[in-house]
Amino acid sequence: MTNAKPSDRVAWLQGPSALCEEPAHSQVPWRLVLLGAPGVGKGTQADLLHQKLRTCHLSTGDVFRAAAARRKCELSLAMKAATEYMRSGALVPDSTVWEMVRERSGCLHCCGGFILDGFPRTLSQAESLKQLMQGKGLPLTAVVNYDLPATEIVARLSGRRTCELCRTVFHVTERPPKVEGVCDRCQGRLFQRDDDRPESIKVRLGAYELSTAPLIEFYQSLGLLMQVDARGMPDEICAKTLVGLDGRCAAIPT
Ligand code: ADP
Fold first, then answer.
1. What are the Cα distances from residue 101, in Å, to 48, 68, 149, 227?
2. Is the CB of residue 86 below 6 angstroms from any atom belonging to ligand 1?
């Protein structure tokens, strides 16, 4: 873990024509995948891990949300369709997701490492990622699976509010802002994501059970899986993750 400045992630968010700042070279280029049902807090953990490990937080959901915020006429047909799938809570088709990730494969080969959040989400995506990384001789460090009871997942998702400017995440009862509807950090307006509405939550949880949960076994069989109990405060969960990662890292021969 290093004190270098965290690298930005414009090449991930905007596509390969955008250039990132020089990545922070760390002794260990962490290459992590975060797994877990929607609402377990992967995004929050990815943010905290990014601050601690100085490794880019690469979220596929953020790329699709950035596309959804653009004018429709600027989007390819596939991206336009992707934003519709997202709004309903359904998974975006593998071919669209993979094209988007492959375009950004530079981020996966980056010497600063990465924290993948929201990808892979299906066995086919996991196989594609495995081949891409194997082709470059860059193994994943670990796959962290955040585990949370279903009742808590629904409560977290339906109370979540996001700042429209800085994307900080609040919760109406668990992490309320000082002023209702206003971001503590930047005074931006807080909104509820379209896919955090009850009808979309149901679709997302169904898609998770069907398509994403099998990845736990996939990564277990590759010896990469690290289970983390996602109950409790974000800082505590992050601390547990870091202890687990340290343990794994100590076991990896240098
Ligand atoms: P969550 O809070 O559910 O973890 P994300 O921000 O990761 O949400 O993703 C939001 C939405 O973007 C998903 O519900 C899905 O529609 C789409 N999406 C993101 N990543 C993928 C992926 N790897 N495969 C298919 N769809 C994806």
1. 23, 17, 30, 25
2. yes
